[in-house]
Amino acid sequence: MNTTVTSPILDRLSALGDETRARILALLERSELTVTELASVLQAPQPSVSRHLKTLAAEGWVEARVEGRNRHYRLAPSLDEPAKELWRIVREQIGEGGVYAADAERARAVLERRRLRSAEFFARAAERWDEMREHLFGPTANLMPLLGLIPSGAVVADLGVGTGTLAATLAPFASRVIGVDRSEQMLAAAALRLAGAPNVELRKGELERLPIGDGEIDLAVLALVLHYVVDPPTVLAEVRRTLRPGGRILLLDMRLHDRGPLYAEEMGHVWPGFDPERVRGWLVDAGFAEGRAIALPPGGDAKGPLLFLASGAR
């Protein structure tokens, strides 16, 4: 008894034997479209377009993602190489003219209507957009993309780790995070928060004598910590010791304010904030290059003093 083994590529050919399906693939190669949008572009009944999409999906040519009541179709990114080559051949043969050019023009109009709907939303929402964005994504959504600038293999030190909030934010973006604090109570709270972060190590120690080896870290972060330090220049020099060549220090703290006595009594602050230029000078004196300090704008409804950001390179 003879058996015939059919090549998988032959199973793909039937889908491309219909011009409507070829037109659909040509459209989906450019952008995602819904069934309704495809029917509009192809000027074909929606049930007919749905049947063609079902065939294309069954043979692995297209994929769909569900968004509410709509399914957005696209050319399958996981096509194997023979299928990609087959589609390249078909694409070259059908070209860009005739009905395919008309389809592309109508598709541009459909996508433009989609963009206009988005523009209309922003026109209506402009006055309350910041509030909506914070409600949906939290107050740090605008800053989170910047964490992607941390090299994946970097070792980051959160100096004055406190209860570990910042260390938990940094951990997914760094190879290793070292959190340092002198308070056993703070370290205990941080350990609870960071229990699920295996790449975070907590160390007890003073910022003036960091429990970190020479050149052990790539980035040192001091977030609202320096105003607790008696001798900031000594701390900055100690931080430089722990940085590898090319490593950086990032320092966030308060600008000079008039609540010094109150904060000293209630929260143990040693400094009533800083003149950002003075901190920049300390960074330069400690041997940091590219030392700079930038005053940050007021933070919405924040009730505390204004802040600044300072940085430098080892």
Structural account:
The protein is an alpha/beta fold and 314 residues long. The chain folds into 2 domains: 128 residues, Winged helix-like DNA-binding domain superfamily/Winged helix DNA-binding domain (Arc Repressor Mutant, subunit A), CATH 1.10.10.10; 176 residues, 3-Layer(aba) Sandwich (Rossmann fold), CATH 3.40.50. Helices cover 43% and strands 20% of the residues. β4, α8 and β5 form a beta-alpha-beta unit. α1 runs parallel beside α5. The longest helix has 28 residues. The radius of gyration is 29 Å and the shape is elongated. It starts with 7 loop residues before the first helix and ends with a strand. The mean pLDDT is 86.
